[in-house]
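Dear colleague,

Thank you for sharing your sequence with our group. We've completed the structure prediction you requested, and as agreed, I am returning the results in plain text so they can be pasted directly into your records. Please verify that the sequence below matches your submission; if there's any discrepancy, let me know and we will rerun it promptly.
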Amino acid sequence: MEFTYRQLQSADVAAMAAIEAEALAVLERPDLLRRNGAEVLARCVESPHWSLGAFAGGRLAGFAILYVPDCEAEDLSLSLAVRPGGKAANFKLCIVRPPFRGHGLQCTLGIRLEQQARSQGIGVLCSTVSPFNEPSRRSLERLGYRCDCRLQKYGFERLLYCKQLHV
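Please find the predicted structure tokens below.
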């Protein structure tokens, strides 16, 4: 399957929210993914954050979000057992619509997100995932993230993954 990629903009927020709702609707457990909603997604397409979309046949198939925290409460790197040096950001979210899963799209979006992070001088990426979300955990691990610790975040138990980027 062929995909094209581009940075997402405010005009894409409704499609992003629809994909999020579609993904949440098919989850076995409601705690696997936290609902962000259109308001949060709208902030994620604005600088300094960066959102990337993958398109198939002109239709948004999935997206990933690089979130640059602007306060301590949003900075996942502050929860790391040992914080690596460098500017940190969050690999906030990566969702692929169910019909497009199984094509390595989550990893491809992650790789492209890391390239963007490096270009912004970001040296550490962090991401949280439910301990029960095996597909997302495997994708992060394939990308070279390591599980650092368990924590309570967003009202749920989460695993905190991190990756040192070589800028």
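Summary note from our side: The mean pLDDT is 91.

Kind regards,
the structure core
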